[in-house]
Amino acid sequence: MKNNRLDPRLVLAACGALGALSSAVSAQTVINISGATLFESFFAAPASTNDYFDVDGDGFARVFDTNDQLAPFALPPAPGLGRNLEWWAVQYRSVGSGNGLAELVGFGHTFAVNPNDLPSGSTLANAYYNRSKWKDATLGLTSIANTGNPGAAPVRSEGTAGPNYLQATYQPPNNPSTGGLKIDLAVMDVPTRWFARIPGGAASPARLPGIGGYGTNPRVALNTDGTTNGRVNTLTSLGTLNLFDPANEGGANSNTVFDTPVAFAPIAAMVNFGVGRQQIDASSLAYLFQTGRDKTGENLMVVTRDSGSGTRNGFMNSLGVDPSWGVGENIGPQSTDPSFNL
Q1: 278 CB contacts (<8 Å, ≥6 apart)?
Q2: What are the average pLDDT values for consecutive 10-residue runs of the chain, which has 342 residues?
Q3: Which residue of 1, 4, 325, 337 shows the fewest CB atoms closer than 10 Å?
Q4: How far is CA 5 from CA 14, 40, 184, 337, in A?
Q5: Cα-Cα-Cα-Cα dihedral sign, residues 140, 146, 150, 156
Q6: Which of 101, 165, 92 is nearest to 124 (CA)?
Q7: For residue 101, which of 259, 290, 212 has the smallest C-alpha distance?
Q8: Three-class SS of residue 40?
Q9: In the prediction, which pLDDT does 68 show?
Q10: Which of helix, strand or coil describes residue 52?
Q11: Is 53 exposed, middle or buried (0-12, 13-18, 19+ CB in 10 A)?
Q12: According to the model, what pLDDT value does residue 112 have?
């Protein structure tokens, strides 16, 4: 999912798809991506930013049986035009699908400028600048992280009008660089409609995407002692954004979010051998993930990801359950939080 600030041809290039790119794009453009943990392996791979059809016009690309890395690692940034020079500065935040959508809603049009505008703590699993980590889910922030920037990102965009609008700005950690940071793409495991909270109807486990009340389960997570933890289960509000309607292409505007499928991925339930089961039906899974108990009343420990997870969303929608109701035991914060304890 993306906003319309980033040229869609540039998006295709970043995803390794075929297309044509305008030569007007300035060198060393910052591209900020947020979303699915499932896509981490793609954005951490050199092939994700290897030039396929000569984006920078230097005569080196896979279509010519040559290689040109458009986003080599360099800090301070080393912009330039030519083979293996830093044409792009790609920053990828692995936060979960719905959380990435929320960051696109919040900072797709508006620059994040304060360090806390984007999280750098437990809700950010891993983060990469041109495939080098600035955040590790286990080890925390690395030496290239800049806590003076939103989300501790190594660079920002210049953020002013003119030809250098998206040029990277850099200061050594942990001094804030100039400009701001905008989210260009929200990579998700499911369509945006599946993650969009719809007001105007009663909350119900049976609500389907696009129906009033979808994604609005009011339950919050609890601590192990029964007190309120406070983590919400509601899905993401689109705010001022709107979904693209194929039946009304002319109705798209600067606030329209476009879905572009790029891959298919399987989602499956995992079970401890101690449960003593090898097969289970969909209705039992629906009961378990809504209540923590099977429809027979058997009490099993059911663990799921937070409501910002595309894996949870895709799995629940496959069962016909509103994902905001797929709470499992509904205990504790995200499992990446070091205080998580069952």
Answers
A1: none
A2: 41 31 50 92 93 92 94 88 84 92 92 93 91 94 97 90 79 94 92 92 94 94 86 91 88 89 84 84 93 90 86 94 92 57 34
A3: 337
A4: 15, 23, 7, 33
A5: negative
A6: 92
A7: 259
A8: helix
A9: 93
A10: coil
A11: middle
A12: 94
Residue 335 confidence (pLDDT): 55
**Residue 172, token pair as written in the block:** 């050594």
Sign of the dihedral defined by the CA atoms of residues 16, 21, 23, 26, in that order: negative
Angstrom distance (rounded) from CA 342 to CA 326? 18
DSSP run (H or E) holding 243: strand 242-243
pLDDT at 160 (0 to 100): 64
The residue assigned the tokens 């304890």 is 341
Amino acid found at 262: V
Side-chain half-sphere of 39: how many Cα atoms within 13 Å? 28
First-to-last alpha carbon distance for the chain, in angstroms, is 35
Nearest to 158 by CA among 6, 10, 7, 29: 29
Encoding tokens for residue 317? 């929608």
